[in-house]
Amino acid sequence: MTYLDYQASAPLARQALEAMLPWLRDGHANPHSPHREGRRARAAVEVAREDVAALLPAGGQIAFTSGATEALNWAIKGLDGPIVTVATEHAAVLDAVRGSGRPATILPVDAAGLVDLDAAERAIRPGVGLVAVMLVNNEVGVIQPVDRLAAMARAAGAPFLCDAVQGYGRVPLPTEADLIAVSAHKVHGPKGVGALWLRDGVRLRSLIDGGGQEAAGRSGTLSPALCAGFGAAARLMLERADADVAHVEALWDVARDRLPGWTINGAPDRRYRGNLNVRRDGLDVARLMNVERDIAFSAGSACASGSGRSSHVLRAMGLSDAQARSSIRLGFGRYTSADELGDALERLDAAANAQRAFA
Fold first, then answer.
1. pTM above threshold 0.85
2. By CB distance 3.0 to 4.6 Å, which of 10, 70, 241, 339 could disulfide with 65?
């Protein structure tokens, strides 16, 4: 199996697994308990918190959550007032905004997937309760100008929420953000744990009722194993930052060479290189997946798979429904070799050509 779905979930790092195993095997104590074993578990959680914090802005506090979806919902539902967000946001943001019942402005994007900054300036005015913008788009890899948008929010007195799930540890985070959501399994950590970073002074209503054990009043018992795995993965992201960037750049070049005649969706330059979203007119993606079933790739967001709808991200960029349905997302990174990527893409290209020949 060649795994090319890093945006849905990155392979677990060996170091993260090793950090988790002692707590899964022997670390039974609740990290919120006052006895010795509870304090030992708590210490492991706090070490992990420091490692996760090393890739986030200085200061503030980090609350561990069950994942980025919880973190984003908490940030959105924990504040009041009108919301400004972008049409290409993740469903965790767009659905939470719609479900909040608060007035919302959904900013458009251009054909490259970049937000309309003029529209943003008109919308981000005093009285706005929250501006929520994704750093790196999960479907097309486009990097939004979050620093400029965060500065607009700061000038208007509005908190700025950044969904940094796809960019954490890979691209610079907005220094003026007030809330940042991240997820462990997108950086080679375990599934089931994420975090919300809150700037000092930011207060949120509780999303989950309970004991309020965690930072910022988040309720629920933390898993020392998941936190330790997240911390180890974050530490490795920091240690391997330069090597990972160079490797992904090399893989990007391989991917571009192996897919002649395919059209890139999204800005070709202002993007994270480990995400390549491409299309071929008339491509039957379901058939392609069935023919090349030992290559794991995506037709869009894993969270929307099975919905029957074409990608809202691609449609917001101006693609027709047919063009969106003939697009695939290829995600690669640290544990992808150039040879396996090249071989897989040559097979996908050949299978797509065969479709056209027999159409």
1. yes
2. 70
